[in-house]
Design brief:
Layout: E1 2-8, E2 31-33, E3 35-37, E4 43-45, E5 48-55, E6 60-65, E7 71-77, E8 80-85, E9 88-94, E10 106-110, E11 113-118, E12 121-129, E13 132-137, E14 152-153, E15 163-167, E16 174-179, E17 192-195, E18 198-205, E19 210-215, E20 230-232, E21 243-247, E22 250-254, E23 262-265, E24 285-288, E25 297-302, E26 306-310, E27 314-317, E28 329-333, E29 346-348, E30 351-355, E31 362-367, E32 374-378, E33 390-396, E34 401-406, E35 411-417, E36 422-428, E37 433-440, E38 443-450, E39 453-460, E40 474-477, E41 490-503, E42 507-508, E43 511-512, E44 527-539, E45 548-551, E46 558-569
Antiparallel strand pairs: 1-46, 2-40, 3-4, 4-46, 5-39, 6-7, 7-8, 8-9, 10-11, 11-12, 12-13, 14-20, 15-16, 16-19, 17-18, 17-20, 18-19, 21-22, 22-23, 23-24, 25-26, 26-27, 27-28, 29-30, 30-31, 31-32, 33-34, 34-35, 35-36, 37-38, 38-39, 40-45, 41-44, 41-46, 42-43, 42-45
Length: 570
């Protein structure tokens, strides 16, 4: 048998999938759970969780940032919004969104306001006024509250339908609208129509051909049926905006049920005004993405360009500035985004990171060297098994960690430092299931669920347990060994050497590591240096990892390198 010494000084690629185990250019692990990869390539156990509050049920959490020092947590539960500051509950507000609607909720902020959109509900504005918080419907009307400033559209099923207008029964501004064929539904109540240079709002449904409506001004009965008419782009019948952002001082909405590829931009500086006006440069803009495939807008991102992520690809509007007469829309890539829930793209060091439509890729949308075309590089090329139908995502830029909540209640966490070559995936698990995640300031908050009880909790670097009482099971396992490109037939492991920093406890291959007694004193920061464990010629199954570092005691551990000594036969 041949003697060998094998040292791993870097774990820069974290846990990798089995098909990459024999790739010598990868500094990975066969398992990495509840541990993080440091910027220098070493390993340390993850931070523990500290409970903040008991929640009424399933919840999603959002950040609400007023300034660099004033941050709030918004917890959306069934028809309520709870506002927290410094982990203290400030107020509970009624909301229109039931639990079933929360997964598609999106928001974008300006000044001291957040605008929330959900495809089945009118947008709402969350705002801090003095020491109070409010949640009100987004106002599509002018300051008088009379003239709607909605975007209007001609839908396909409107063509060939004429409307006869007769005097109403509710005053001089009311009318009876009779369609030439079946068209109206009860969902048309609230719909705004535009014809004869007037806006009409449907107030009552009578039949598939008859509705009652009111006008903003007195009117004269048209001499003939109206053939040229438009409907509001947003209402209960056609749906409400799916995506939202602010770009070049415009509020931008994207996609509805009826117009999945639609994009609507407000007047410059007037975020409630979507009236097309006369097409001046600062007036509202509306357009629809056109391609061979159906495009449903999933997300909008304001970057150097307006990025539009759809179910079928990634688009960009490059004009500087964007105007009604200047709209250069180009599809750059064809990855696509998921439609089953809102997974908000994250801005990471100037790039846009998003979950692909397959729910198995994390893509980085970045410009090429010429600054003309976007590429969508895969950030989990070696670790696709770590993703299990993600349901939420956030990024902590101070820690350089990307968190994805999986449908099974675990989290896939990417520790990334491009400058130092770190791109390491690990798995977080706990006694409870992770349900939602968000970063507030520099702190990562989560929603936990355990046997039907929901909690708001946060990661804390000083916590060595979860929720004060639950041990954290951590584990790091090396890759199966190969020599000269071959897998050995027999392997005997004689010794494992670890280089540790401020460590107080660990197991190697399920045997406790013996550390000096003095490091267990409360005043000691732990053991730092090299320490070995002898295995006296233990036979190792060559198909599995030759070493495993694990533990669950509330003690710190940091591993800089692992060296194994033994013999092998090919």
């Amino acid at each position: 048998m041949t003697e060998f010494i094998h040292t791993q000084n870097s774990f820069a690629h974290g846990e990798i999938a089995p098909e990459f185990y024999l790739n010598k250019d990868i500094y990975g692990l066969s398992r990495l759970e509840n541990m993080d990869v440091l910027s220098g390539g070493g390993l340390t156990r993850r931070a523990g969780l500290v409970d903040v509050a008991i929640l009424p049920g399933f919840s999603r959490i959002f950040s609400y940032d007023i300034s660099n020092t004033e941050h709030y947590i918004l917890v959306f539960s069934n028809n309520t919004v709870s506002v927290y500051s410094n982990d203290t509950l400030l107020k509970i507000i009624s909301s229109p969104w039931p639990e079933s609607a929360l997964t598609h909720l999106q928001c974008a902020g300006f000044s001291d306001s957040l605008v929330f959109v959900q495809p089945d509900y009118c947008p709402y504005v969350f705002k801090k006024s003095g020491n109070d918080f409010t949640l009100d419907k987004f106002n599509f009307y002018d300051t008088t509250g009379v003239y709607p400033r909605m975007p209007f559209m001609k839908y396909d099923d409107m063509y060939g339908i004429n409307i006869s207008v007769t005097a109403g029964i509710h005053g001089v501004q009311s009318a009876i609208l009779t369609a030439s064929k079946n068209y109206w539904t009860p969902d048309n109540i609230g719909t705004i129509l535009r014809f004869n240079n007037q806006n009409w709002q449907i107030t009552e449904y009578i039949s598939p051909t008859v509705v009652y409506a009111t006008s903003t001004i007195e009117y004269s009965l048209p001499a003939a049926p109206v053939t040229d008419w438009l409907e509001s782009a947003f209402d209960d019948k056609h749906g409400w905006p799916i995506a939202i952002t602010f770009h070049q001082d415009r509020l931008v909405f994207g996609g509805t049920r009826a117009t999945p590829g639609g994009i609507w931009m407000s007047h410059v500086g007037d975020y409630h005004n979507f009236d097309a006006g006369s097409g001046l440069d600062d007036e509202a803009i509306s357009t629809t993405l056109l391609s061979k495939e159906r495009q449903q807008v999933c997300s909008l991102i304001s970057s150097d360009k307006l990025q539009v992520l759809t179910s079928a690809g990634e688009w960009a509007i490059a004009n500087q500035p964007v105007t009604p007469s200047s709209m250069n829309i180009v599809q750059h890539t064809t990855v696509g985004s998921p439609t089953i829930c809102n997974l908000p793209p994250q801005k990471i060091e100037g790039d846009t990171v998003f979950v692909s439509s397959t729910l198995r890729d994390i893509r980085k949308l970045s410009l090429d060297t010429l600054g003309e075309r976007y590429n969508a590089d895969d950030l989990c090329l070696f670790s696709k098994h770590m993703l299990n139908s993600p349901v939420d995502i956030t990024y902590n830029k101070e820690l350089k960690q990307l968190y994805l909540v999986n449908a099974d209640g675990t989290m896939a966490v990417l520790n990334q430092n491009v400058g130092l070559g770190i791109s390491a995936w690990s798995r977080y698990s706990s006694y409870a299931k992770f349900k939602s995640v968000v970063v507030i300031g520099n702190t990562t908050y989560v929603v936990l669920e355990n046997t039907g009880t929901y909690k708001l909790a946060k990661f804390s670097g000083t916590a060595l347990t979860d929720s004060g009482t639950h041990d954290i099971e951590f584990c790091a396992s090396g890759l199966p060994l190969s020599f000269s490109g071959h897998r050995p037939k027999h392997l005997r492991l004689r010794k494992v050497n670890l280089r540790l920093v401020e460590t107080k406890g660990a197991f190697i291959n399920n045997m406790r590591l013996e550390l000096p007694n003095e490091i267990y004193d409360a005043s000691s920061s732990g053991f730092s240096g090299d320490i070995s464990m002898n295995f006296l010629g233990s036979q190792i199954d060559v198909s599995i990892s030759p070493w495993q570092i694990s533990g669950n005691e509330p003690e710190p551990i940091t591993v800089l390198s692992v060296t194994i000594y033994g013999q092998y036969e090919i």
